[in-house]
Amino acid sequence: MPTAIAVTGADLALPPHDERTLPAVVLPDLDKQPLDQALSAVQSLLDQHGHLIVVYSQAAPHAVERRLHTIRGLLESDRIALFRPELPPLGLAVLARQLRQLASCDLSPGVLASAGRLLTHYIHAGALLGSVARLDRVPVPLKSHAKSWVPGSQFAVLAHPEPQLVKIGPGATLAGPEFGTWMQVAKGQLQSDWVTATLAKQWSVQGLRETALPAESAVWWETGKLVEFAAYLPDLSVLYQLVTSVRQGSCHWCGIDVIGDRCVFCSATAPVPPVHENQLPAG
Length: 283
What we know:
CATH topology of the largest domain: Hypothetical Protein Tm841, Chain: A,domain 3
CATH class of the largest domain: Alpha Beta
Low-confidence stretches: none
Order of helices and strands: EEHEHEHHEHEEEHEHEHEE
């Protein structure tokens, strides 16, 4: 069976992008259900799929993160990867769907888990906000804070890959991807079509998809008055080519195939090459 890709809420399990996209495993209410019940559910997933990759948001309750680490520790399993990227919730849901697409391919569990870090760089995630007064995840100039108290002010914010913030007005734009993307949009309590009518056109997106706003988005952005968006690579063939074009290696600790310098399953980092005598600096 393919590696299981899990999220911590049903609103982070986006509809499939193609017929090969595997269903997401949803691990809901981890901080509320009995520990033995959560342990049993995760053990069953490992028995069925061999490996489990859990993608969860930095806006998830601390109790959820503690429960995930507790489960991993009690099961003493290096077959569970916990991945918490610096993406807003909608961008994270998009990334989880990309991993679900790749899970249908011939990638090993370690390479698939490592692919999360790689693909994060190709996601442009942000939001249109009615206020940035409480926003602390993106640098906000003092002037913008002051303007946020003016009734009717709106701000376009890009959280990833490079922070940007502009006040909505004539000619307002955000620097976007330099490659073809689709855009996922989730509308909260803010009434505006700027993202779908203006930003999508400026970024020349090739397709739009709308979904319900994840519950954790209001926590991440510090306001429910928002329209969240994420531009991403939709095609499985492109995603697969990106991942397989990166040099692969083996984790020196657990032996699993990985890309990059850190194993997502056992958390071991690549050892620092020894410094030979003839490489020592002079003096």
